[in-house]
Design goal:
P-loop_NTPase, Kinesin_motor_dom_sf, 10 helices, about 30% helix, Kinesin_motor_CS, three-stranded antiparallel beta sheet, ATP-binding, globular, Kinesin-like protein
């Protein structure tokens, strides 16, 4: 089974925050329809979400459609890009226990299980969750904070992965964070197997080092963040050209981990998060230009039906599906 890759770029603007309003900052962007924002010039994306957009609307626009794809055996990726305090973590996580303010991650996790419980009773599911961060190009398991500087491995199909724990979530520091949901399913009657992964990525803030005034360790952190974001941009640029035989996935650990979610078997959505404030105009324009580098659909999906995996012996007594 093969299908064209689907990639989309969504643009979300947050409202002016309290500090910006107290300074009297001007809100610069003008919105034209549901796909265009004007900031000096028009920028067109698959969808532009104005500052008054609710979390549910953002989820329905950016993420809901990927659930069925992942349960259908495809890989999915959603990642938030933008400067610090542009609304990335609010978009991806939000407030976990507030039904109105929760973000993409808790909503999509709930949606996955809603879909599973409505599917054929002959299907068994095996679901794993991993959560890790990349800080100074080192990988730390956020489900077991004693594990640091983890290695990137490759499976038998040369797909990169990180071996991490599957436990309750710990708190993450400023870094790139990746929340990974792996879903394997088997039809117990036909023995058909499908496997899909969903990468939910909250990227560290992109900003000019000179503007932050960072020194010492903070300067090293800012430089590493910008280096890894530049590596991501270079991968996207190479994929956009379509004719390049070499895509520089190995230039950073993040791009290596996301290799099969950017150029392979995937449905990818990038949410570029922007500030409307005049004081952040340069960073916002940089973010908008980054979003316009994202490639048009060009890849094809791999057929994962032949992939084998151990069947779980632990099944849910109510539905016969593995937990």
């Amino acid at each position: 089974r093969s299908a064209p890759a689907e990639r989309s770029v969504m643009c979300r603007f947050r409202p002016l925050n309290d500090a910006e309003r107290s300074r009297g900052d001007q809100s610069l962007p003008k919105f034209n329809g549901d796909d265009t924002v004007v900031l000096g010039k028009p920028y067109v994306f698959d969808r532009v979400l104005a500052p008054n957009s609710e979390q549910l609307q953002v989820y329905q626009t950016c993420a809901r459609h990927i659930v069925k794809d992942v349960l259908g055996g495809y890989n999915g990726t959603i990642f938030a890009y933008g400067q610090t305090s542009s609304g990335k973590t609010h978009t991806m996580e939000g407030r976990l226990h507030d039904s109105r303010l929760m973000g993409i991650i808790p909503r999509i996790a709930g949606d996955i299980f809603e879909h599973i419980y409505s599917m054929d009773e002959n299907l068994e599911f095996h679901i794993k969750v991993s959560y890790f961060e990349i800080y100074l190009d080192k990988i730390r398991d956020l489900l077991d904070v004693s594990k640091t500087n983890l290695a990137v491995h490759e499976d038998k199909n040369r797909v990169p992965f990180v071996k991490v724990t599957e436990k309750p979530i710990a708190t993450c520091s400023r870094s790139h964070s990746i929340f990974l949901i792996s879903i394997k399913q088997e039809n117990v009657e036909t023995e058909t197997k499908l496997s899909g992964k969903l990468y939910l990525v909250d990227l560290a803030g992109s900003e000019k080092v000179s503007k932050t005034g960072a020194e010492g360790a903070l300067l090293d952190e800012a430089k590493n963040i910008n280096k890894s974001l530049a590596a991501l941009g270079n991968v996207i640029a190479a994929l956009s050209e379509g004719t390049k035989s070499h895509v520089p996935y190995r230039d950073s650990k993040m791009t290596r981990i996301l290799q099969d979610s950017l150029g392979g078997n995937c449905r990818t959505t990038i949410v570029i998060c922007c500030s409307p404030s005049a004081s952040n105009e340069a960073e916002t324009k940089s973010t908008l230009m980054f979003g316009q580098r994202f490639p048009l659909p060009s890849s094809s999906f791999l057929d994962l039906r032949s992939q084998s995996w151990p069947r779980s012996s632990s099944a849910c007594p109510h539905c016969g599906r593995s937990q």
